[in-house]
Write a structure and sequence with these properties.
Strand order of the largest sheet: 8-9-10-5-11-12
Order of helices and strands: HHEEHEEEHEEHEHHHHEHEHEEHH
Radius of gyration: 20 Å
Distance between the termini: 14 Å
Largest sheet: 6 strands, mixed
């Protein structure tokens, strides 16, 4: 983020508050939508029949804007022939696949200070997209803008468009809580709630009326985060007794318990030791087959190891606003970048 900008709190307590606020502020609205949702057989043309969840339940419907959309439709739609914006028609470009996000000329300011300016990029399904760049260049601001986590920050304003499955997430009719439910977020530092391991996972489903077969939902989430075998015999013990790496995987399990489409990870391994970091990286490689993952990282080796696509952000020389310099397949960014600023950064000449 721009050094002149006061960023949102990144403390563990602040992150917990943010997550609680994001989930609780619209539970009533979500509940009302769930009670009045159109049956699958009468849904709009861009909705499809509900798919069974591994636990035996059905994936819930969501509403982005005025058009109802099935969560299953988002995860089972046929791949669209959308080229990555910066890679179209060029050797080494990613194969055409459906875009989850289509960001168009996004600029974000806090008061009079511009954090990022004119960012345009597409993020494809079932890929890990890494955001790299020097401190203060707007990587976390961009990430948090994808699911409206910046809305409560004083002075925040945004221009341009953030299209998620073709729907503008900043449209006036969109409920930000529904956006955050579909686009989950895991913060930089592990922030388990001061509850049991079981209740950490079950808290959001309970409040979102996803209570059917809750035990199996909890197990499903913990298995998805590769944590079940380590905690299955102490589910009712405090989550605060877990190691740092286990706590971060618990936070990932908590996010996937409500079946998101996308996971946003803001430096999820920066506070972890190398062994715990390796566990998180291996987990991401597994999760990308079910979710689209966008990660902010300052670790160049980590980005090179795990990311399918990498976006390099830097600071514009005169305005000091964050700008997107280059976005391409990860091997291109690290071995044959087109922009000399990218080359200087990934080879350690600056940053």
């Amino acid at each position: 983020m721009n050094p002149n900008v006061t960023p949102p709190s990144q403390s563990a307590f602040g992150a917990v508050e943010a997550e609680f606020d994001a989930l609780t502020s619209g539970v009533a609205a979500l509940s009302a939508n769930a009670e009045t949702a159109t049956p699958p057989e009468t849904a709009s043309a861009d909705a499809t029949q509900t798919q069974p969840h591994p636990s035996g339940g059905a994936k819930p419907r969501i509403r982005i804007g005025s058009a109802p959309v099935h969560a299953s439709a988002m995860q089972s739609a046929e791949s669209a022939t959308v080229d990555a914006l910066s890679g179209a028609g060029r050797a080494g470009a990613a194969p055409a696949r459906e875009s989850i996000f289509d960001v168009r000329e996004m600029s974000v300011s806090y008061g009079t200070n511009t954090a990022i300016s004119g960012v345009t990029m597409q993020i494809q399904r079932n890929m890990i997209t890494a955001l790299i760049g020097p401190s203060g260049c707007g990587k976390s601001t961009f990430l948090r803008s994808l699911n409206r986590m910046n809305d409560s920050v004083k002075g925040f304003s945004i221009s341009g468009q953030v299209l998620y499955h073709g729907h503008d997430v900043y449209a006036g009719s969109v409920d930000p809580v529904e956006v955050r439910r579909r686009i989950g977020m895991v913060f930089q530092r592990p922030n388990p709630f001061p509850k049991s391991i079981y209740d950490n996972i079950a808290w959001a489903p309970r409040n979102l009326r996803m209570k059917d077969d809750l035990d199996r939902r909890v197990e499903y989430a913990l298995r998805g985060a590769a944590l079940w075998d380590e905690v299955k015999d102490r589910l009712h013990a405090s989550a605060l007794g877990l190691s740092g790496g286990q706590q971060q995987r618990l936070c990932i399990a908590r996010a996937i318990a409500i079946e998101p489409d996308v996971l946003l990870l803001d430096e999820p391994a920066s506070a972890l030791d190398p062994i715990a970091t390796l566990s998180i990286e291996q987990l991401m490689q597994t999760l990308k087959h079910r979710y689209t993952i966008v990660i902010v990282t300052h670790n160049m080796q980590q980005a090179a190891r795990i990311a399918d696509r990498t976006a390099f952000f830097s600071l514009e020389a005169t305005s000091r606003a964050g700008v997107l310099v280059e976005y391409d397949d990860t091997d291109v960014i690290f071995t044959r970048p087109r922009d000399p600023r990218t080359s200087d950064y990934v080879t350690g000449r600056f940053g």
